[in-house]
Design brief:
Distance between the termini: 67 Å
Shape: globular
Helix content: 25-40%
Amino acid sequence: MNYYDAPSIEKKWQEKWEKANCFLASIDHAKPKYYVLEMFPYPSGRIHMGHVRNYTLGDVVARYRRANGFNVLHPMGWDAFGLPAENAAIERGVHPRKWTTENIISMRTQLKRMGLSYDWSKELATCKPNYYKHEQKMFLKFLDADLAYQKESWVNWDPVENTVLANEQVVDGRGWRSGALVERRLLSQWFLKITDFADELLEAIGNLDQWPDRVRLMQKNWIGKSEGAKIKFALENNPAREHHHIEVFTTRPDTLFGASFIAISPNHPLSLAIGKTNKVAKAFISECAKLGTSEASLETAEKKGFDTGLIATHPLDASIKLPVYIANFVLMDYGTGAVFGCPAHDQRDLDFANAYGLNILPVVLPYGKTAENYTITNIAYTGNGVLFNSHDWNGLDIDAGKKTAIESLIAANAGTAETTYRLRDWGVSRQRYWGCPIPVIHCKICGAVSVPESDLPVTLPEDVDLSTSGNPLANHPTWKYVPCPKCQGDAEREQDTFDTFFESSWYFLRYADPEYADGINSRATAYWLPVDQYIGGVEHAVLHLLYSRFFTRALSKVGYLNLDEPFTSLMTQGMVCHQTFKDQNGKWLFPNDVMKEGSDWITVAGGHPVVAGRIEKMSKSKKNVVDPELIIENYGADTARLFMLSDSPPERDMEWTESGVEGAARFLKRVYQMAQDPTLAPVGATILPDSEGSARTLIRVVHKSIISLSDDIENFRFNRAVAQLHILANTITNVKLADRGAAEAKRFGIETLAQLLSPLSPHVAEEIWQCLEHDNMLANGTWPKADESIATDDKVNIGIQVNGKLRDTISLPRDSDNADAEARALESPAVLRYLDNKAPKKIIVVKNRIINVVI
């Protein structure tokens, strides 16, 4: 084949790799192991460009490590439970299992067309009973170890999807999938005790030195360890006699004398007690329920309050009286569900105080300011300073003030030092059908009873009606009714299913041996884990990654593992973006529906004017998407892969452009044609030690390219790796056949180019390798070795300074002696101009770097 036929070449090599079992992984203690993993996809039915980028990045790493002698595990599977399947089943009138299975088949075919080096024998799908029966057993072990429990809790309720959402799944007060405004509801829920590991999870972040800084910071902030004080405020006129005081947690006890009100959560027991007898309070509490329970939704909402008429007394000065408000911005499950408002030094409190005409008393004086006439109006002061208006604490700095405040509260029996966390226990109950059943049976006599291990898995009923509202399992006529395992009396199954993050919190462990009868093979995980390189989107920084870190520790505690951290190195790739387009009526257009005519955009059909918009993340709603299958069909998977790697550093967003894809395609065609060159030396020919001119230059560039690509791949600088491949290809093209050793150097250059290209665009690299008459496959081959002594340039560019300022640059033989370097520097016209026929005071030579002439 003397032309580049990408579809035929790619199909050919995919079949060869599969037939040769190139990517099967098994335990081999004779080799160092390397476990590379991309976050597994939800089987929506079609891959998108985000998938192409993510999986290409991982495949480059896997192929590179395999070529460097590592025993590589590179698996793929499917995060297959979830509401989208349920919703699709309702829309299409098919069972979620059928829809999911068909999507998996379709997406597996698409991924295989990309030439990814997956060990498909390790494939798993979380919706299969042979997967989720093991997590049911894990949950029962968590129950036995007091790491799981059930309680009534205020939850985020998505009224469209009719399910509970974790705080992390609420975005700007709306459900992360449906976009519906989230409500608060009190429901009985199952929880995992992630808070038991809060300190451990927080402290270990410091050891995750191969994770992006922003991800570590996001996790640290989410855990949110706070040191402060718990303070009691006595109530003066409370008709609800069971409530004699309000407990408040604060991280700023030093500002206690600036307090002007108390705010309690709408779900605080005192609020609920007031709501029983006060209709206005009850209505306000109902209104607050529409905000959900996440901090994000409360931060963005207008700050509102209901004056209860109650008065609290300042714990250190009984003459200070504080009104008590029910406030929509206070969360019941953070701290104590109550705060004292210090408007002068907290912007939220200041906005609230201004809205309700409350007192604003500054108690922290900025350094350099005087107390006289210092006031706060619309902007709270949150910086450093000294305390004033604070009785005996006046003159203390903030840290000393906090310490003294806590000592004063303890002495007055009005408070204690306290540590609290933003992190809450993980609510794992979801009110849906397409999820893993929770293995618990509820008996009126025995209470909540674990399903016997011999009865696992608890499977889902196939004859489910998804057309009704609410929980389909709760509505099923027979499935939920079972005898109690203890007393054999009438009982009901738990009708909630697990949050799908339950499945994704341990799938990377199952890959080590997906057929193991008892869930997690400790021998296999001891060999393969932790994951050496994990790749996925930064949107999972809190949800999936934090849960996985917790799950690994919890499983270790109950005996499955001996492991703390699941992922050694983490790379979060940027998004794939594309320009957006609209027609004259404001309707979104697909990129293939438009074309450029001169400087204007028009529709392909009809030539109507098009409004070109911003470059944004690819999304179906804005139609700025490109179908990977069309790109693979038209250009080939190697081209798509190469462009994904060449455009920008992987951690940054990249723009998908037709011109960029065409450029990648041209480069691969060019490289392929190089291998057809009849002037190449025969296979097995070695480079001549006395190669000259362009041949000698090429040999040096080859060795430099090996060093460069090795370093770039290991440090995720794939765009730089592609740039170096272009340099190498250009150098090969520029070889002059008349130069001694040219034919041998060109063969050496093209062979090495194929090897270096192999992790990035593997199909064409294999084809080139075969064209060069090699019998082995690059997929099983070794990475080329560089000779650093050859890679070193014969000459170096040296900067010449005059009195420390750069004035010229000259080229010198590497390691020139100082006398030669000084002589060449003094010949520089720039230096001669500054010397003005005078001798220099001295000349300083830093070998191979710089020459400084002092005059």
